[in-house]
Design a protein that fits this description.
Chain A: Belongs to the FAD-dependent oxidoreductase 2 family. FRD/SDH subfamily. The complex is a heterodimer of chains A (594) and B (241). Chain A has 15 helices and 22 strands. Chain A is globular. Among the domains of chain A are: 122 residues, Alpha-Beta Complex (Flavocytochrome C3, Chain A, domain 1); 100 residues, Methane Monooxygenase Hydroxylase, Chain G, domain 1. Chain A is an alpha/beta fold and 594 residues long. Chain B is of the alpha+beta class and 241 residues long. Chain B is 35% helix and 13% strand. Chain B has 9 helices and 7 strands, in the order E-E-H-E-E-E-E-E-H-H-H-H-H-H-H-H. In chain B, a hairpin with a 2-residue loop joins strand 3 and strand 4. The chains are: A alpha/beta (594), B alpha+beta (241).
């Protein structure tokens, strides 16, 4: 078994992981300290799901915009379940990070005067979203990846699959990974470890996410005693393509696209987002520029009322972009035009795009402190896998691309500083962990007959969709939780058919399923125990259809238990700057600070 | 349900010395992509089939394969467009590691070799100011910045097939993208790498790379504009003695 030492090991090569790697290398240089950084990913970094982000990245930019306004939008957008100290740090550092991306070559869209262009986004009081056409995540990821090549301190381990962490005396000691090309296990000893493994959208049947978004890092931290926080808050993006779930960016609405039901009516005006804004004059925080949770909920209501259309067997509403004109669409939204044409044969220049909500983003994640460190010393987390506390009960579109820069950097800097004052752990701790993993893999590959893991996966994603959808009930969530717990039992006996070593992708998918089952229990438990409605967590149960700050202005924390059901606790929310208030959009929000 | 037959060139290095063809019957409707078909094979017919994929929306660049001899993204290839035989192979010109998974290391090395990042001495200091760049300046390189690194152009390139040391279409395009960027001052550092035999001069302008590019990046145009730049660079170097 290969054993290697690094000062810092970063798991995940998406936006947060790459930003962290560069920040760690820069920090080490500025401290005149040679440090070695491993950047490990189960794919090549530019395949990471950051690549699929379309709309943009938010930061206060215009002279008439204020940090206070971005803070207020984020806190009210998150239905006051946001860590306010964290949001304050975020809005203060957002612009600096987007400028840094520009200095590294990111091809941001421009105004005629050569300055960076901004666009409108949902739930934001003013236009503050930087964008690179409608491929912002793609351009950010490639810019970060290409920039990372300048740093010889960063050693990439492409196509290495993380299996486990090693923890010794309450501190991280390293990780255990599988080299996918050979099937060999490797031990990477580290003074600091950063998890940047992305979200868990693939727990749900219908989603916008790439196949790799399976929550690996979340499950690994969770199994080592770190809380998963606010996992019940799962974002449904209101506009996914029917059939595939492929994302159609919110920027379509930011640029003036409108949503119609089957009667051609702009139904959002009936859901506290009106009055109707004139065609071609989108107005921030009105109608189509409401927040994602409210828009997805409005779809569900229309569906119940029989006012949705159908497309290829799916209930849909329609995103109409025709009035924006061909030239504008091809300049601002070229990827959307390409996707609609390729995947559902609709040309947005000529026809409205049928769309429906799809699971998009995991608001919760690995609990960290405001400096990205978890309850395991030296273990950091950043990006979608983390719950640093920025998004609360509902994330605003274009806050997450900025988040992965702001907190990826912070995690990288902090990990570098910690590595400088920390000794490597005794390698025996790491070896024990590896032996444990080896035994688990050997068992999974012992060639015995078992039921097919694909069947478990199908049952899992179906249960999550049925039980933890846009609207939820006590019965539905309870049933989902029971299903997940039974699946976890069945998973213990699962074997894979392919027992080879080289690129055994069946084994990897089966391990990912195991990660997913653990996280799913946390999601269901958090959802079931939160007996109120807040942000993306909406209940139909009597007496639970409104926000209940007295009882639930609290984060849920779920702790893994090896020999029994997971355990839930509640944690206070940092509300130091902004007292909870009514969350209002459209005309109802006129004059309110947020 | 309608079905179609696809034949996949398999290679299991731990079991067989040589590749073999295996046919599969897969369900199809109007929206079935080749990637959907591969998922069906893996989940329902033969779990040992290995292939790369991720975003399934033609932006991550993972799922390139040969379809009837043409390099394609699996997720953006639809079985409705094929009537007869559908033969799936790993991307040409790369060593095969298993089934449809090829060794991409040389591709990554070529990308890194051209210094594909913005070079400017003014970058050392962190600043609150962006560079200015007009939409016209952006338009000069924007198309070339849309490469998703899928590698299809390398499978289309006969020169890369003959000589894997050739930097190849994507890497040369990326170099050109930065050379054209009004913010960049690094062209002089990139030109020696581009101006070698294994740089732009290995390209014989077959142009197939641009035909197969799923993002219309037009690497052939970038490479040939790069030849002009390389020739200028040589001349200037001559004059400077």
């Amino acid at each position: 078994m290969q054993h290697r030492d690094f000062d810092i090991v970063i798991v995940g090569g998406g936006g947060a992981g790459l930003r962290a790697a560069i920040a760690a290398a820069e920090q080490a240089r500025s401290d005149h300290r040679p440090q070695r950084v491993a950047l490990l990913s189960k794919v090549y970094p530019m395949r990471s799901h950051t690549v699929a982000a379309e709309g943009g990245a938010a930061a206060v930019t215009s002279p008439d915009d204020t940090l206070q306004a971005h803070f207020d939008d984020t806190v009210s957008g998150g239905d006051w379940l946001v860590e306010q100290g964290v949001a304050d740090y975020f809005v203060r550092h957002a612009h600096r990070e987007l400028v840094q991306m520009e200095r590294w070559g990111c091809p941001w869209s421009r105004r005629d005067d050569g300055n960076v262009q901004v666009r409108r986004f949902g739930g934001m009081k003013t236009a503050r979203t930087w964008f690179a056409a409608d491929k912002t995540g793609f351009h950010m990821l490639h810019t970060l990846f290409q920039t990372s090549l300048k740093y010889p301190e960063i050693e990439r381990l492409d196509e290495y699959f993380v299996l486990d962490l090693a923890v010794h005396d309450g501190a991280v000691a390293g990780i255990v990974a599988l080299e996918v090309a050979t099937g060999e296990m490797v031990l990477l000893r580290a003074r600091s470890v950063i998890l940047a493994t992305g979200g868990a959208g693939r727990l749900f049947r219908f989603n916008t996410n790439a196949g790799i978004v399976t929550g690996d890092g979340m499950a690994i931290a969770y199994r080592h005693g770190v809380a998963l926080r606010d996992m019940e808050f799962v974002q449904y993006h209101p506009t996914g393509l029917p059939g595939s779930g492929i994302l159609i960016t919110e920027a379509c609405r930011g640029e003036g696209g409108i949503l119609l039901n089957k009667d051609g009516y702009r139904y959002l005006q009936d859901y506290g987002l009106g009055p109707e804004t004139p065609l071609g004059q989108p107005q921030n925080k009105y109608m189509e520029l409401g927040p994602r949770d409210k828009l997805s909920q409005a779809f569900w209501q229309e569906q119940q009322a029989g006012r949705t259309g159908t497309f290829a067997g799916s209930d849909v509403v329609y995103l109409d972009l025709r009035h924006l004109g061909e030239a504008f669409l091809h300049e601002r939204l070229p990827f959307i035009c390409e996707l609609a044409k390729a995947y559902i044969n609709v040309d947005p220049v000529r026809e409205p795009i049928p769309i429906r909500p799809a699971v998009h983003y995991t608001m919760g994640g690995i609990e960290t402190d405001p400096q990205c460190e978890t309850s395991v010393a030296g273990l950091f987390a950043a990006g979608e896998c983390a719950s640093v506390g920025l998004h609360g009960a509902n994330r605003l579109g274009s806050n997450s691309l900025t988040e992965l820069l702001v907190f990826g950097r912070l995690a990288g800097e902090r990990a570098s500083q910690r590595a400088a004052r920390t000794e490597f752990a005794d390698p025996r701790a790491l070896r024990e962990q590896a032996d444990d993993q080896r035994a688990r893999l050997a068992r999974m590959c012992d060639g015995r007959e078992s039921e097919h893991w694909v069947e478990l996966k199908r049952e899992l994603v179906q249960a999550m969709e049925s039980g933890c959808g846009i609207y939820r009930t006590e019965d539905g969530m309870g049933h989902a939780l029971q299903t997940v717990r039974r699946l976890r039992e069945r998973y213990r006996e699962i074997r894979v058919g392919d027992t080879s070593k080289v690129y055994n992708t069946e084994l990897l998918e089966c391990i990912e399923l195991g990660f997913g089952l653990d996280i799913a229990e946390a999601t269901c438990l958090g959802a079931l125990e939160r007996r109120e409605s807040r942000g993306a967590h909406q209940r139909l149960d009597e007496g639970m259809q409104a926000r209940d700050d007295d009882r639930y202005l609290r984060h849920s924390q779920v702790f893994h238990r090896h020999d029994g059901p997971a355990e839930l606790r509640w944690q206070e929310v940092d509300t130091r700057f902004s007292a909870p208030a009514a969350r209002v959009y459209g005309d109802a929000g006129k004059g309110s600070s947020a | 349900m309608t079905t179609k037959q696809i034949s996949i060139r398999r290679y299991l290095p731990e079991r067989d010395d040589a590749p073999f063809w295996q046919p599969f019957e897969v369900p199809v409707d109007d929206s079935t992509s080749l990637l959907d078909a591969l998922h069906h094979v893996k989940e329902s017919l033969d779990g040992s089939l290995s292939y790369r994929w991720s975003c399934r929306m033609a932006i991550c660049g993972s799922c390139g394969v040969m379809v009837n001899g043409i390099p394609k993204l699996g997720c953006k290839t639809f079985l409705r467009d094929y009537d007869g035989e559908i033969r799936i192979e790993p991307l040409a010109h790369f060593p095969v590691r298993r089934d449809l998974v090829v060794d991409m290391e040389i591709f990554l090395e070529h990308l890194a070799a051209v210094k594909p990042y913005l070079i400017d001495d003014a970058q050392a200091q962190e600043t609150a100011e962006t560079y200015r760049q007009t939409p016209q300046q952006l338009a000069r390189y924007r198309q070339f910045s849309n490469c998703i690194n899928c590698g299809l152009c390398y499978s289309a390139c006969p020169q890369f097939g003959l000589n894997p040391e050739f930097l190849g279409p994507a890497a040369l395009t990326l170099a050109h993208r930065y050379n054209l960027d009004s913010r960049d001052r690094g062209k002089a550092q990139r030109m020696p790498e581009l101006n070698r035999h294994d740089g732009v001069w290995s390209c014989t302008f077959v142009g197939f790379c641009s035909q197969v590019c799923p993002k219309h990046v037009d690497p052939a145009a970038a490479v040939n504009q790069g030849k002009v730049e390389a020739a200028k660079h040589t001349l200037i170097a001559l004059f400077k003695g």
